[in-house]
C-alpha cells in the first residue's frame, strides 16, 4: 500500500513525515471558493474530499490518498489566504488580541475500493496583541501570503499565538492524532508514538491528544 499526500504544503509534508510513513506528494488543483451558505466545517470537509478524489484519479489500486484542508474562522466568517499585503494586514488587525477558530478536515481515500474516511479537528486560537511594527515586519517577509488567516503559528520570530490549549498541528494544517485514527480505519499503522513525536518536534506541551486517541 502506498500513501499519497494530496497537498503541496511544506507544513503538511513535514508533519506527515513525523509518522514514519513512506509517501509521495501529488498536488491537488480544486476550486477553493466557499459555496453560498456553506459553513466552515462543511467547507473544509468538501475541499478535503475533493482534493483526495482529484488526486486519486488515475492512481494505482494500491494507493491511498490523504486530502486535507484548513481554514481560519473569525466570528463565523471564513478567512482564506490573503490576495495581497493589504488584505494580509487587514486580517492580522482583525485577529489581533482575540480568539478565533481553525478548522481542518481530513479525507483518506483508498483507491482499491473507493472507501473514503473523513475526520476533522477544530482548535480555538488566542492571538496575542502584537504591535503594528511587529505585524509590518512579519508581512514584509511574505510569509502571510500563502497562509489562511495571514499567519503561521510556527513562525519563529512573529509567534502570533499565546496560551494555546488545543492541537498545535491542526493550526499548522495536519492534526496528526486525527490522521492516525483515520488511517487505522484503512489498516495503516505507525510504529511512532505520534503524540510524543509531535510534541517534541513542535516544542509544545499538548493536553488535547488523549481526547483524540481515546476516542
Describe the structure.
The chain is α/β, with parallel strands linked by helices. The protein is 34% helix and 21% strand. The chain has eight helices and six strands, in the order E-H-E-H-E-E-H-E-E-H-H-H-H-H. It has helices at 10-17, 40-56, 85-95, 132-140, 168-172, 176-184, 194-202, 209-213; strands spanning 2-5, 23-25, 63-74, 77-79, 99-110, 115-126. Strands 1, 2, 3, 4, 5 and 6 form a six-stranded mixed β-sheet that branches. A hairpin with a 2-residue loop joins strand 3 and strand 4. The chain starts with a strand and ends with a helix.
Topology summary:
Blueprint lengths: L1 E4 L4 H8 L5 E3 L14 H17 L6 E12 L2 E3 L5 H11 L3 E12 L4 E12 L5 H9 L27 H5 L3 H9 L9 H9 L6 H5 L2
Parallel strand pairs: 1-2, 1-3
Antiparallel strand pairs: 3-4, 3-5, 5-6
Helix pairs in contact: 3-4
Give a count of the beta strands, DSSP E runs of length 2 or more. 6
Cα-atom Rg, whole angstroms? 17 Å
Identify the overall geometry: globular
* Overall pLDDT level: 95
Q: Give the helix level as a range of percent.
A: 25-40%
The assigned structural class equals alpha/beta
Span from first to last CA? 26 Å
Order of helices and strands: EHEHEEHEEHHHHH
The major pleated sheet works out as:
6 strands, mixed
What multimeric state do the chains show?
single chain
Low-confidence stretches: none
Determine the strand fraction and express it as a percent band. Answer: 15-25%
Number of helices: 8
In short:
Helix 3 runs antiparallel to helix 4.
Amino acid at each position: 500500500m502506498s500513501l499519497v499526500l494530496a497537498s503541496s504544503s511544506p507544513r503538511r509534508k513535514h508533519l506527515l513525515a513525523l509518522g514514519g510513513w513512506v509517501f509521495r506528494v501529488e498536488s491537488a488543483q480544486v476550486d477553493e471558493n466557499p459555496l453560498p451558505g456553506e459553513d466552515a466545517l462543511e467547507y473544509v470537509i468538501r475541499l478535503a474530499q475533493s482534493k483526495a478524489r482529484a488526486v486519486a484519479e488515475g492512481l494505482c489500486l494500491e494507493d491511498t490518498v490523504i486530502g486535507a484542508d484548513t481554514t481560519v474562522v473569525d466570528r463565523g466568517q471564513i478567512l482564506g489566504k490573503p490576495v495581497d499585503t493589504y488584505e494580509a494586514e487587514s486580517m492580522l488587525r482583525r485577529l489581533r488580541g482575540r480568539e478565533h477558530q481553525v478548522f481542518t478536515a481530513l479525507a483518506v481515500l483508498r483507491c482499491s475500493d473507493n472507501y473514503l474516511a473523513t475526520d476533522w479537528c477544530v482548535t480555538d486560537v488566542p492571538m496575542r496583541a502584537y504591535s503594528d511594527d511587529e505585524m509590518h515586519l512579519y508581512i514584509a517577509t511574505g510569509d502571510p501570503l500563502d497562509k489562511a488567516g495571514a499567519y503561521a503559528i510556527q513562525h519563529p520570530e512573529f509567534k502570533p499565538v499565546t496560551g494555546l490549549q488545543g492541537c498545535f498541528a491542526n493550526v499548522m494544517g495536519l492534526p496528526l492524532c486525527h490522521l492516525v485514527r483515520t488511517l487505522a480505519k484503512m489498516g495503516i499503522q505507525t510504529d511512532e508514538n505520534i503524540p510524543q513525536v509531535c510534541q517534541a518536534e513542535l516544542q509544545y506541551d499538548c493536553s488535547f491528544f488523549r481526547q483524540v486517541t481515546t476516542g
